[in-house]
Amino acid sequence: MTQTVSDDAKSRQPSPPTERAIRVIELLADRSIAPMTLADIVRRTGQSRATAHAIVSELIAQRWAVRDRVTGAIDIGPGFTSLAASVSPPDPVIELARPRTTALHNSLGIPCFVARRSSPDTISVAIATWSTDAPADSRATELPWLTGDRPIRLRPPISREFFAWATPAEQDAWISRAPAALRTRLRLALAAVAERGYSIERMSDDYVALMDALNSLGTASDSLRSRMSDILTELTTIDYLADELHGEVPVITIGAPIFDDDGSVIAALVACPNATMATSAVVDVGRTVREAADEVTAAYRGLDHRRESR
């Protein structure tokens, strides 16, 4: 007799391997939980390390999960989120930002993207634009965050535009996660970002060299990756303060916030010069990015108001 799918719980045949895989997926997809190491997954699910490792490895191979190359933390991947998005209503923020991101890219002639907040401490690249003549392999090499292959933790000092307008308590909590030596600089940087309306990302030569070395390590323990991540943070020169913007300066990205009705930053529109620029050019690009982000904010707030008035 051929078995058929039934709603009758008594008639179904249990599948423990499937149940174990679903448990891991549910855990990774829970946005209230920070990305976990394999040891965390073993502890939370009660599965053996070998079983959890096999499940996670297959999820990563299928792009349903991703592993942070620095910290070893595992998070839900683009394969899963793409599938979920295909059966979910369109995200109004993304729909409103898409044409403006394309217009910004066409105007500036540089890559642009939208970072969408998916949880209090996680963002993901939702839209990315490239020059049509940019080689595909150069994109992942020069600007790896534009691949959208993994969620990005809002760990200091990155993505300051998501915290420059946060409450003092939220800023304090975020800054407290940084090494003590960087906290004063972070607080000054958040004030500078809020004053001018956009963040400016820059990296030192030492940072780039160490990142290249880390990427070549292959396997490393979670504790080692965590310690190396702290070193990377310490090597980062955080943003530009007002009196530091003069002459020519190296700029990786310039990001401006997109707000909801409550004034919370729910996304950011980001341009990627990835070059040394004259200060006047940085200011011009920053103003253009901020104006485009403000347009998305206004459109989104207007959309919410129209819905409420119906």
TrEMBL record:
Domain named HTH iclR-type: residues: 15-78
Gene3D superfamilies, A to Z: 3.30.450.40, Winged helix-like DNA-binding domain superfamily/Winged helix DNA-binding domain (1.10.10.10)
PROSITE patterns: HTH_ICLR, ICLR_ED
SMART domains documented for this protein: HTH_ICLR
GO MF, one annotated term: DNA binding
Domain of life: Bacteria
Protein keywords: DNA-binding, Transcription, Transcription regulation
Segments forming domain IclR-ED: 79-302
Signal peptide: none
One of the GO BP terms on file: negative regulation of DNA-templated transcription
PANTHER family xrefs: HELIX-TURN-HELIX TRANSCRIPTIONAL REGULATOR, ICLR FAMILY (PTHR30136), HTH-TYPE TRANSCRIPTIONAL REPRESSOR ALLR (PTHR30136:SF24)
Protein's recorded name: Putative IclR family transcriptional regulator
Species in which this protein is naturally found: Gordonia effusa NBRC 100432
Taxonomy of the source species: Bacteria, Bacillati, Actinomycetota, Actinomycetes, Mycobacteriales
